[in-house]
Specification:
The chain has 9 helices and 8 strands. It is an alpha/beta fold and about 325 residues long. The chain has a single domain, classed as Alpha/Beta hydrolase fold, catalytic domain (Rossmann fold), CATH 3.40.50. Helix 4 links the parallel strand 3 and strand 4. Helix 4 crosses helix 9. The termini are far apart. About 5% of the residues have low confidence.
Length: about 325
């Protein structure tokens, strides 16, 4: 019996060793972790047919719940700013920062579980507070409905906390919204947050680099341009409220931008970084080779590394 158990154990050890060796070889050859490769191929890309079927969908998206398996370290209360649902968790103490997180989803979709997981992780590791709005989405609303509510929320926050403790962060559409909101705050001569973190931000709703489409396993540039025009509604899609790349970058807070080289937003994000740098903004560009859209939220070593970097940025 003991010999049988030993054989089983040695077999398991051999299998695990083989997996480790093969995984290491794949990482060495491809340049990405095996987990990142799996995630990139598990993503589903929206098609033009999906867009046509979904356009005009009036499903109520105004109320969401935090997934039961996501645990925040402190109580997450809810309230409303106008008709916008807001989740709010206080920081660990009065010295810790406040993160206003604007989620992505092409202005169509609510929070994903990856959003909740990342926010819970940052709240745990940094002690920061989290404020995250379920802002109005297509196709019941457009940008003209969402932006006033976001400004109202920010004005409430700076009454509760010093602006120097506030960081605004966002991914994809939420990253573009973050940059547009910061420009609007500056234009209205309101005290700015201390830092921006833009994760694969959608800074030009009519943009996207077609030359990178083949490597992007998640985003379709043609579909996104249609959705971006819908989000703009009656507003010019190149208005900075919609596409903040075209806005004035002067006077913005220090900014960190994250992007993967295998996403269609790569060129737009690099151009945004260069535009900010040209006017003297303290900005850092974090580029991950062969990584895709919003990779810092992925459950892989590259994503974990980026989230740890962002945690350090939050606590600066």
């Amino acid at each position: 019996m003991r010999n049988i158990i030993k054989k089983i154990l040695w077999t398991l050890v051999g299998i695990i060793a083989a997996i480790v060796i093969i995984g290491g070889a794949v990482w060495l050859i491809d340049g990405r972790s095996p987990q990142a490769i799996v995630v990139s191929h598990a993503l589903t890309k929206a098609t033009m047919e999906d867009y046509k079927q979904g356009k005009g969908d009036k499903t109520d998206k105004s109320v969401v719940e935090i997934p039961e398996d996501v645990k925040f370290p402190r109580e997450m209360r809810q309230y409303r700013v106008g008709n916008m649902q807001v989740f709010h968790m206080e920081p660990q103490d009065d010295d810790k920062p406040i993160v206003l997180y604007i989620h992505g989803g092409a202005y169509l979709h609510n929070f994903s579980e990856q959003h909740w997981n990342a926010m819970a992780e940052w709240a745990e590791t940094t002690g920061c507070g989290i404020v995250t709005p379920n802002y109005p989405l297509l196709y019941c609303y457009t940008a003209k409905d969402a932006h006033p509510l976001m400004m109202q929320l920010y004005k409430q926050l700076i009454k509760q906390y010093p602006a120097k403790r506030i960081r605004i962060m966002g991914d994809s559409a939420g990253g573009g919204f973050t940059l547009a909101l910061a420009q609007e705050i500056r234009n209205d001569s309101i005290e700015l947050p201390s830092h921006l973190v833009l994760i694969s931000p959608w800074v030009d709703v009519l943009g996207g680099d077609d030359a990178l489409q083949e490597n992007d396993t998640f985003l379709d540039a043609k579909v996104l341009r249609k959705v971006g025009a819908d989000w703009a509604g009656e507003i010019d899609p190149r208005d900075p409220m919609i596409s903040p790349f075209y806005g004035d970058m002067n006077g913005l807070p220090p900014t960190d931008l994250y992007v993967g080289t295998w996403e269609i937003f790569y060129t737009d994000v690099v151009n945004t970084y260069n535009k900010m740098k040209a006017v003297g903004i303290d900005t850092q560009l974090h580029v991950a080779e062969k990584m895709g859209h919003v990779y810092p939220l992925w459950p892989c070593p590259e994503g974990s590394k980026a989230r740890k970097e962002i945690a350090e940025i939050i606590t600066q």
